[in-house]
Specification:
Number of helices: 10
Strand content: 15-25%
């Protein structure tokens, strides 16, 4: 089975940030295509916040979430239990080898997953296999190159370049969003609708959360240890970047945005 190196890691600073995602903010492009009785596969479900949201949109259907890390699945199960999402089940599984019959889902969804894979096309081919004819594969990924903020800072530029370098060292594509259309076509899809949305951190709560999260990620997560191990940064430099993130988080004029691209593909053959 293919193994990928996850650039972020699964430390609390990462998992807690991912748990803030909702189906309304992360899958708005998919929601108009859902009905009450669909069966949905949520690939790379993380802590389950989007999974629980999908379950609300298919009350007479079923949502299956998969992850490769058992500890994260425990968090997802707990979250869905607390949310009362009784139509959700979870499996520990890889997107490269999905343990499901061909054509067994109406929708396969993956949010911010393909950017971390060494072979996103192989993953999309497997997602295509398990969706029924006429079913949908829906993918959404960010483009790190578009991440920018005000006030600007050389350390912000250094952080963005460093993250992209570490991710590519891991064989992944941090600017995955712009590649989704080509990857979907290569995976055999011919009916593809592309869209994009912008993530914005402008109000005090979202700004502080985003800035503090990335400050911690620069100090305590796999991203930080990988950056040092690969020789791309020192711990002292990462400390400076973290301090810069915290200064931005506390700036009442601070603003951050980035583009997420979205692909909605129909299995026609």
């Amino acid at each position: 089975m293919q193994r990928d190196v996850y650039t972020h890691g699964h430390q609390p600073a990462v998992v807690e940030q991912h748990a803030r995602r909702t189906v309304e903010t992360s899958a708005a492009f998919l929601l108009p295509h859902l009905n009450d009785s669909m069966r949905i596969l949520d690939v790379g479900c993380g802590p389950g916040s989007i999974t629980a949201g999908l379950a609300r949109w298919v009350p007479d259907g079923e949502v299956v979430g998969i992850e490769v890390v058992s500890s994260v699945l425990k968090t997802a199960r707990r979250h869905c239990a607390e949310a009362g999402a009784g139509n959700v089940t979870f499996r520990e599984a890889s997107v490269y080898d999905l343990p499901f019959d061909s054509g067994s889902f109406d929708v396969v969804y993956a949010h911010q997953v393909l950017q971390h894979l060494t072979d996103p096309v192989a993953a999309l081919c497997e997602m295509r296999r398990v969706v029924r004819h006429g079913g949908l594969v829906a993918v959404r990924d960010s483009d790190y190159y578009t991440m920018s903020r005000t006030p600007e800072s050389p350390l912000m530029d250094r952080w963005r370049d460093l993250y992209r370098r570490v991710a590519r060292h891991n064989g992944a594509e941090p600017d995955a969003g712009r590649h989704l259309y080509r990857w979907l076509k290569t995976a055999g899809f011919t009916e593809i609708t592309m869209s994009a949305s912008c993530q914005v951190m402008a109000d005090e709560e979202s700004r502080r959360n985003w800035g503090e999260s990335w400050a911690e990620r620069c100090l305590t997560t796999d991203f930080a240890s990988q950056a040092v191990a690969y020789g791309y940064a020192t711990e002292a430099e990462l400390g400076e970047i973290a301090a810069d993130w915290r200064a931005w988080a506390n700036d009442p004029d601070g603003y951050f945005h980035y583009i997420c691209d979205e692909g909605l593909a129909v299995r026609t053959a």
